[in-house]
């Protein structure tokens, strides 16, 4: 072998040469019956246990859901709920009593759930100014906030429809005449508090106009500490959603009765929305949701069934 | 319209005509941006994207940041604009180089060295040997006393031989000084692009000679881009300059070719566009209804009671923007990218490097690789394409004695060598004709060896063979030829040359032996042009036999003849010849007639047989490609017998009884018509038999058939898998390509010479062989390869892979954008049909570019079958040819898949199951081969079932599918499944037959008839 030959030989080994000749090593799996049946069986045996474990975790969560929007309107006003809720002069107190069926371990999360509420409506979801939330009213380019941008030629902080429609029902929980302590701190994302909402930005000119939307904000607390607002402004993707209200940091025993005093301020009557109060414990997988477990079990079992079908087909007619 | 060129008049013509500045540029610095943008926006896709991008600037309706569309759009435009700019800049540089070349030009009577771009019409331009001609000149002086000069016209017409040019008679004998002062006027037509015609007149002003009109022809011109050779100097008057030269006028940017696949993708894009419009309308209406019924109740949305006038449009436009990603902007970029990679793979392929010359294959046109996989007809030239175009003198027959029959090489035949050594008079005369009856120009190189510049390879072979037999053509000095035979030098004076024309089929020279003053006529030509004119007593039987015997062997034959002329006979004829050569009307015909008067009563000396060997691997290549379902047509300028012989020897047609040749001939319309109908009838009958039927047609009959019986001929063309067209002209070749294209066939034309250029440019794919007839064909072609056998690899490997990959990539691009679009549409139903985007701008852009476009580019390395398997089973090409991997029904499959994946994000299980099921129980041919290839199992030979395709339908062959394939699900369905399939269907319902040439022909036949 001469030198040039060897050189050429070496050149032929390089990846680039193989690439130019379209001869890069490749893996070409063949769908043989044995392989496919094994793969399906394997998937089945992976997915079914995973699904069962997930399902078990989801089922271990205790959840209390109570719809209160109709009950909390006094009988005389039930014909015209909208005017009831819009009338400031009528007191909006309301009491619910919840019965705890199973032992609930702290922390117990308190959610309010809204149904048929389109936080994902295009007009709504765009109507905010992230810059203003961070930098305050000094930031002027807030045209995205329309139609809630200015009031009396003064900028509104926080501007936009989302902030303007802040949820303003409040809840207090009483067990055996003693008020349960509800922790309302740390309910928003840490990143939102630290980086998205300004520490020096205070509400200004908010809910001051002729059109009053939802809740009001304390103008002396900076936005980064207004956690209800921060939670509310993380808009939900679906028209039915839960938002965190607080945490009860005491265990609840079975057959405990919790009385909820609430202010039924928020108007969902105009569009037929529902309001629900949710108390829920959590597992290592989060809240109560059977979907993941069911999906895994379904995928796993269908894989096993397919494997069996293919096996029978293969035995019947060998190819 | 005429132009008058005043010779050497510095003032008059400067303003009238342009200067000699050549410009091939498309753009200038100023108009580049608008012109380029205008060109880019003339494409529908680009208009669409621009419209979308503009709509996105309206913040009320845009779902995402406008940058996510503007970014890619500007990127795409910048890329193609800078490509254009770069090309144009290179053109500018080469123009500049040509324009600034220094040329000697006469100005105010003094020779000056000026830049080529400053030459004006009427200037006298001086050239030296090996100079390039800067503009079209009328020759007025050369260094040669006879007024001759030699030019090489390769750049103009691709012919590499030297051509002689002569100065007009009026300028004969002018000396150096006079040429500086000459004045006169040339009357010539306005610039055109005909490089074979120049009808002009020259009139010199007093005091120069007479003031008669002197006719000028193309023989008196030096055209731009030719080279002056073998002549010390020459000078001429510039008549056409700059872009108005014959070359400049014929230069044109050929229309970009569009592949069948591009057309299909465009069609599918159109369908998606319609779908998109429908979706937008439905969602728009739904959105407006929802807004009026529901959204007004939702106080937190705060809809104004009175909206602006365009309020109804807002929601539909929002959805239009949301759905705009259905047509992926990335498809153009990715396709361009992978296409250029396919082309690169062809350039890189080490198995397609010509071992003799080391020249790799090259894809000039980077955009049409997929078409290679869809070729249905190959039209091939013969000489130089199938054969090597290396003519070798093999055998001869002199006065009835055969030489070279035993050894196969006359040059080594001892008998002949002895005869030469013994100066046998017959043999000497034979060799003399071989050596000097031609237009060859001998050139002495520096080492003393003699090189021959020949117009045809045949003449070259003959002269070289004569030299090997000690009859060496040494020198040509004006009209004096020098021959050295066995050491002694013999001189001849050439009196006349009767040039070769394809009508006369012979050429002759009249020479005078300088020793004894005898005048002799030497002729050579085709047998039918020589043998009938033998003198009355000559026995030509042996010669006829020789011709037949040689033709049987596929050799090219020429008959050599001579006749002694009497002095007065020659003088008398010479006058007639001069007269005929100066006529203006029907000159060629008159000359032929006059020649006829001299060329008779020949003493036929013998027959030469020249071999033009087949290139390596031609028969195998043709066989493989025919198995792949590609039809071959041979278009040649050669004569019928030779063409048929070559066709037989390269598997083009099968010998009897398997094959059958049908002849279409005739000189008149009626004859051609009858013959055509007869052939058509036979063809229809035999089309059901497994017989190789081919038709043979010659140029004359073809002319008539194309003119008067186009429909019948078209039908014949569709029925016949093989055809041989002999004696066809370049334009007829192009016409045939056009004919097949009009039947909606994908054609590939392959050739090597200047006469194939038109066919190559006309065909869907032009392949040039960088052969011995110059590079012109290779330059005009889309692909240039070194050898015919590379065609196999080009089509089966590169074409097929390119097709498969593009089919996957284009459909995948649509699939992935449909998936994300369906998600958006789905989401709109739970977001109040208000046109909210589920994804933010960055995610959308990242999805389109980083997640789905770039990784998928890896599929350019995808191979469904190994190269070896494809080569062994070329039948698999049918999938590409019929367009089975990209058509409306496969596209519907991908559409369905995207819908499915919208609902089941992790839908791989069912897809795998479906794939496996098809793979195992309903395998396509590709699957079967994949299985065989990868399991290392026996590759079922498809070859043994090939000869009887009809039998195979009945038997259950291991590779044929027994059930009808009509129930095929999404993956790779047959075309016949889809009602709106536009390409051919393959005998629907019948078992899919690999080599179903018959049903294929009949189905395509019926399709084409419907088209008519």
UniProtKB/TrEMBL annotation, chain A:
Source taxon at top rank: Eukaryota
Transmembrane segments: 30-52, 291-313
Cellular component GO terms, alphabetical: endoplasmic reticulum; Golgi apparatus; plasma membrane
Keywords: Membrane, Transmembrane, Transmembrane helix
Cellular location(s): Membrane
Family matches, as Pfam families: CDC50
Family recorded in the similarity comment: Belongs to the CDC50/LEM3 family.
The protein's name: ALA-interacting subunit
Species this protein is from: Durio zibethinus
TrEMBL record, chain B:
Family (UniProt): Belongs to the cation transport ATPase (P-type) (TC 3.A.3) family. Type IV subfamily.
Protein's membrane topology: Multi-pass membrane protein
An annotated GO cellular component: plasma membrane
Cellular localization per UniProt: Endomembrane system; Membrane
Primary localization class, coarse: membrane
InterPro entries, sorted: ATPase_P-typ_cyto_dom_N, ATPase_P-typ_P_site, ATPase_P-typ_TM_dom_sf, ATPase_P-typ_transduc_dom_A_sf, ATPase_P-type_domA, HAD-like_sf, HAD_sf, P-type_ATPase_IV
Keyword Membrane: yes
Annotated TM spans: 44-61, 268-290, 818-839, 894-917
EC number(s) reported in the record: 7.6.2.1
Record keywords: ATP-binding, Magnesium, Membrane, Metal-binding, Nucleotide-binding, Translocase, Transmembrane, Transmembrane helix
GO function term, MF aspect, one: ATP binding
Protein name according to UniProt: Phospholipid-transporting ATPase
Taxonomic path: Eukaryota, Viridiplantae, Streptophyta, Embryophyta, Tracheophyta
Stretches assigned to the P-type ATPase C-terminal domain: 778-905
Active site: 381 (4-aspartylphosphate intermediate)
Cofactors (names): Mg(2+)
Domain P-type ATPase A as annotated: residue spans: 100-162
First-level EC class: translocase
Catalytic activity reported: ATP + H2O + phospholipidSide 1 = ADP + phosphate + phospholipidSide 2
Residue numbers binding Mg(2+): 381, 383, 752, 756
SUPFAM superfamilies, sorted: Calcium ATPase, transduction domain A, Calcium ATPase, transmembrane domain M, HAD-like, Metal cation-transporting ATPase, ATP-binding domain N
Region (Disordered): 956-989
Domain P-type ATPase N-terminal span(s) in chain numbering: 5-70
């Amino acid at each position: 072998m001469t030198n040039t030959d060897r050189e050429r030989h070496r050149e032929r080994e390089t990846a680039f040469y193989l690439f130019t000749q379209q001869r890069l090593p490749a893996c070409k799996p063949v769908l043989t019956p044995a392989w496919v049946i094994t793969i399906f069986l394997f998937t089945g045996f992976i997915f079914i246990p995973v699904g069962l474990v997930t399902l078990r975790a989801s089922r271990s969560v205790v959840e209390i859901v109570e719809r209160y929007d109709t009950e909390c309107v006094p009988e005389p006003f039930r014909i015209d709920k909208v005017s009831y809720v819009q009338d400031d002069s009528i007191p909006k107190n309301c009491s619910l009593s919840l019965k705890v069926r199973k032992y609930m371990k702290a922390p117990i999360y308190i959610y309010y759930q809204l149904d048929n509420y389109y936080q994902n409506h295009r007009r709504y979801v765009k109507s905010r100014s992230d810059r203003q939330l961070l930098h305050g009213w000094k930031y002027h380019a807030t045209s995205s906030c329309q139609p809630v941008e200015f009031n009396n030629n003064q900028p509104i902080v926080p501007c936009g429809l989302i902030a303007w429609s802040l949820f303003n029902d409040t809840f207090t929980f009483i067990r055996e005449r003693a008020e349960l302590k509800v922790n309302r701190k740390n309910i928003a994302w840490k990143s939102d508090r630290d980086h998205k909402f300004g520490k020096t930005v205070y509400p200004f000119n908010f809910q001051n106009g002729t059109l009053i939307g939802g809740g009001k904000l304390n103008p002396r607390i900076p936005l980064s500490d207004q956690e209800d607002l921060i939670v509310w402004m993380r808009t939900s993707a679906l028209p039915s959603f839960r938002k965190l209200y607080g945490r009860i940091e005491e265990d609840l025993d079975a057959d405990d009765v919790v009385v909820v005093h609430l202010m039924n301020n928020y108007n969902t009557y105009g569009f037929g929305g529902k309001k629900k109060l949710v108390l829920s414990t959590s597992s290592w997988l989060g809240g109560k949701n059977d979907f993941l477990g069911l999906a895994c079990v379904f995928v796993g079992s269908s894989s096993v069934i397919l494997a069996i079908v293919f096996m029978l087909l293969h035995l019947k007619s060998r190819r | 319209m005429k132009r008058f060129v005043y010779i050497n008049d510095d003032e008059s013509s400067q303003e009238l005509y342009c200067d000699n500045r050549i410009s091939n540029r498309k753009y200038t610095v100023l108009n580049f941006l608008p012109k380029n943008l205008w060109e880019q926006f003339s494409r529908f896709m680009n208009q669409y994207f621009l419209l979308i991008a503009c709509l996105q600037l309206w913040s009320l309706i845009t779902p995402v940041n406008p940058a996510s569309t503007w970014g890619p759009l500007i990127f795409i435009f910048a890329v193609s604009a800078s490509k254009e700019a770069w090309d144009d800049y290179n053109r500018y540089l080469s123009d500049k180089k040509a324009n600034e070349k220094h040329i000697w030009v006469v100005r105010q009577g003094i020779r000056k060295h000026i830049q080529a771009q400053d030459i004006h019409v009427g200037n006298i331009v001086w050239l030296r040997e090996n100079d390039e001609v800067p503009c079209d000149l009328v020759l007025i002086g050369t260094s040669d006393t006879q007024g001759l000069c030699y030019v090489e016209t390769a750049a103009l017409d691709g012919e590499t031989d030297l051509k002689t040019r002569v100065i007009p008679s009026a300028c004969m004998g002018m000396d150096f000084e006079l040429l500086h002062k000459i004045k006169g006027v040339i009357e010539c037509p306005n610039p055109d692009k005909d490089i074979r015609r120049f009808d002009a007149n020259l009139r010199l002003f007093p005091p120069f000679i007479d003031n008669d009109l002197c006719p000028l022809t193309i023989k008196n011109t030096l055209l731009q881009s030719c080279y002056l050779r073998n002549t010390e100097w020459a000078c001429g008057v510039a008549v056409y300059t700059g872009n108005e030269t014959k070359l400049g006028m014929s230069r044109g940017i050929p229309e970009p070719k569009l592949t069948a696949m591009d057309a299909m993708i465009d069609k599918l894009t159109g369908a998606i566009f319609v779908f998109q419009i429908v979706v937008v309308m439905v969602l728009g209406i739904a959105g407006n209804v929802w807004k009026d019924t529901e959204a007004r109740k939702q106080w937190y949305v705060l809809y104004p009671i009175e909206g602006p006038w365009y309020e109804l449009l807002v929601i539909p436009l929002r959805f239009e923007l949301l759905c705009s990603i259905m047509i992926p902007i990335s498809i153009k970029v990715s396709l361009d990218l992978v296409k250029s990679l396919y082309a690169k793979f062809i350039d890189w392929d080490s198995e397609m490097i010509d071992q003799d010359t080391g020249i790799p294959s090259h894809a000039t046109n980077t955009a049409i690789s997929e078409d290679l996989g869809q070729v249905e007809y190959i039209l091939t030239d013969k000489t130089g394409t199938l054969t090597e175009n290396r003519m070798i003198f093999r055998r001869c027959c002199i006065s009835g004695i055969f030489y070279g029959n035993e050894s196969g090489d006359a040059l080594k035949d001892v008998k002949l060598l002895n005869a030469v050594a013994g100066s046998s008079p017959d043999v000497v005369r034979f060799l003399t004709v071989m050596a000097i009856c031609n237009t060859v120009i001998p050139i002495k190189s520096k080492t003393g060896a003699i090189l021959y510049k020949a117009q045809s390879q045949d003449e070259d072979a003959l002269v070289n063979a004569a030299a090997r037999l000690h009859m060496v053509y040494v020198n040509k000095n004006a009209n004096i030829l020098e021959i050295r035979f066995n050491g002694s030098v013999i001189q001849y004076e050439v009196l006349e040359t009767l040039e070769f024309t394809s009508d006369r089929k012979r050429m002759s020279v009249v020479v005078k032996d300088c020793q004894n003053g005898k005048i002799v006529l030497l002729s050579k030509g085709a047998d039918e042009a020589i043998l009938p004119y033998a003198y009355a007593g000559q026995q030509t039987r042996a010669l006829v036999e020789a011709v037949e015997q040689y033709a049987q062997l596929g050799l090219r034959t020429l008959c050599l003849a001579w006749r002694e002329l009497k002095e007065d006979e020659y003088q008398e004829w010479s006058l007639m010849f001069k007269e005929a050569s100066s006529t203006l009307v029907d000159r060629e015909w008159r000359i032929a007639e006059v020649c006829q008067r001299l060329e008779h009563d020949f003493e036929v000396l013998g027959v030469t047989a020249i071999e033009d060997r087949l290139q390596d691997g031609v028969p195998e290549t043709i066989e493989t490609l025919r198995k792949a379902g590609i039809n071959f047509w041979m278009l040649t300028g050669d004569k019928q017998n030779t063409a048929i012989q070559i066709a037989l020897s390269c598997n083009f047609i099968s010998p009897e009884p398997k094959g059958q040749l049908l002849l279409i001939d005739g000189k008149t319309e009626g004859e051609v018509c009858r013959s055509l109908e007869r052939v058509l009838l036979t063809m229809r009958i035999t089309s059901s038999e497994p017989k190789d039927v081919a038709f043979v047609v010659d140029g004359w009959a073809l002319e008539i058939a194309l003119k008067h019986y186009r429909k019948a001929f078209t039908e014949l063309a569709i029925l016949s898998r093989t055809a041989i067209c002999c004696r066809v002209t370049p334009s007829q070749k192009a016409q045939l390509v056009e004919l097949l294209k009009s039947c909606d066939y994908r054609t590939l034309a392959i050739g090597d010479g200047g006469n194939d250029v038109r066919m190559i440019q006309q065909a869907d794919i032009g392949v040039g062989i960088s052969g011995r007839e110059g590079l012109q064909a290779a330059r005009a072609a889309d692909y240039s390869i070194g050898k015919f056998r590379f065609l196999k690899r080009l089509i089966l490997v590169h074409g097929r892979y390119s097709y498969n990959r593009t089919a996957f990539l284009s459909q995948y691009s649509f699939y992935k954008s449909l998936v994300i679009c369906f998600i958006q549409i789905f989401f709109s139903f739970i977001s109040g049909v208000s046109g909210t985007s589920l994804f933010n701008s960055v995610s959308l852009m990242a999805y389109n570019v980083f997640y789905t476009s770039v990784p998928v580019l890896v599929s350019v390395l995808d191979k469904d079958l190994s190269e070896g398997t494809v080569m062994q089973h070329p039948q698999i090409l049918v999938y590409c040819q019929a367009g089975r991997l990209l058509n409306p029904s496969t596209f519907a499959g991908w559409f369905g898949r995207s819908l499915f994946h919208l609902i089941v994000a992790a839908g791989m299980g069912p897809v795998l199951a479906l794939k496996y099921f098809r793979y195992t129980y309903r395998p396509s041919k590709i699957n079967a081969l994949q299985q065989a290839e990868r399991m290392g199992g026996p590759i079922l030979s498809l070859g043994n079932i090939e000869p009887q395709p009809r039998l195979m339908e009945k038997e259950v062959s291991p590779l044929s599918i027994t059930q009808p394939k009509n129930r095929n699900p999404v993956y790779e369905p047959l075309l016949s499944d889809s009602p709106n399939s536009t390409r051919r269907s393959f005998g629907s319902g019948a078992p899919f037959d690999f080599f179903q040439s018959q049903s294929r022909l009949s189905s395509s036949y019926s399709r084409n008839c419907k088209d008519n």
